[in-house]
Amino acid sequence: MTDTTAPKVLVTRRLAPGVVDRLHPACDVRHHDSEQPMARAELLAAAAGCTALVTTLDDTVDGELLDAAGPALRLVANHAVGTHNIDHAACAARGVAVSNTPGVLTEATADMAWALLLAATRRLGEGERLLRSGRPWAWAPTFLLGLELAGTPLGILGMGRIGQAVARRAAGFGMPVSYHNRQRLPADLEQGARHLPLDELLAASRVLVVTAPLTARTRHLLDAGRIARMPAGAVLVSMTAGVVDEEALAAALASGHLFAAAVDNFEHEPAVPAALLAQERAVLAPHLGSATVRTRQAMGDLAVDNVLAVLAGAEPPTGVSPPPTSAPPSSP
What is the DSSP code (8-state) at residue 252? Predict the structure, then answer.
């Protein structure tokens, strides 16, 4: 029998095995056990009376949802590092804490950035599509020539945990690293990388990996004008939806200004711009950055840790402060 006095917790998506079970002893759990996101009306109804919501990036957490949950709501635990799906001001106005799942997905996401970079520079997507098509082919000295990474200058836009992990991997390729951040990192975290203003970083980067979080200041930070500042024949890898203008990226590929590009998640998922789909030298992945068994287990457990802490009267271990709402557009 359900304990009607227990705090109600809504989990909006199927999580790793055993994660939701950890909530049952302390909570009345409402679980949308599905790979698909909840319909908006269903989400609003299920949130009513909840003390905590365990959400994903597909769930828009705004004033409407917070009001539907009601005054009992104390925490929105986002099963993600990003929180751009959450209206932080609306949460703060209602005294609702926000948490995310940082740290545990750093290495998996950095691995994925390198997988995409290698696929883009060596034209693996084109090669596989050719073989699967059944079209005739033959090895030739000029067949599907790609780019080598050894010694190539690497730029990183957003030198947080994931950016630093990307930089560590660059050492194995002998790639000099430059980066742009709102603030320069301490020397021990820079790992010998150069801190540059954004425009200088773009001009210096034969390869650019974007790991900056999506905020009001970084949305479409890399527009057509900024992409044009990259060297001709450069490669761009985007690990954050919305920071790179996807239509501008497709245009830079179509014009030949960029040699190749790779994108792991998209601004209007699950939709992918037709212009990007049409580009043979675009490697497109369906948001797989953290998609390993170990990482998704750790993300789910961390989201639940935040819920259990708040229910016990403590602060969420990975609480998130509201991001700044405005800043110079060149400073992610």
Answer: H
CA 181 – CA 260 distance, rounded (Å): 24
pTM of the model: 0.91
Write b or e for each residue in 266-279: b if 16 or more Cβ atoms lie within 10 A of its Cβ, otherwise e.
Answer: bbeeeebbebbeeb
* pLDDT higher than threshold 60 for residue 305: yes
What mean pLDDT comes out for the span 148-161? 97
Mean pLDDT of the chain: 95
Name all domains of the chain by residue range, CATH numbers in brackets. Answer: 8-104+293-311 (3.40.50.720), 106-284 (3.40.50.720)
Integer Cα distance of 289 and 298 in angstroms: 14
Give the alpha-carbon dihedral of 284, 287, 289, 292, to 10 degrees: -120
Place of tokens 């090895």: 139
pLDDT at 117 over 90: yes
Whole-number pLDDT of residue 326: 35
DSSP 251: H
Closest CA to 280 of 96, 120, 52: 120
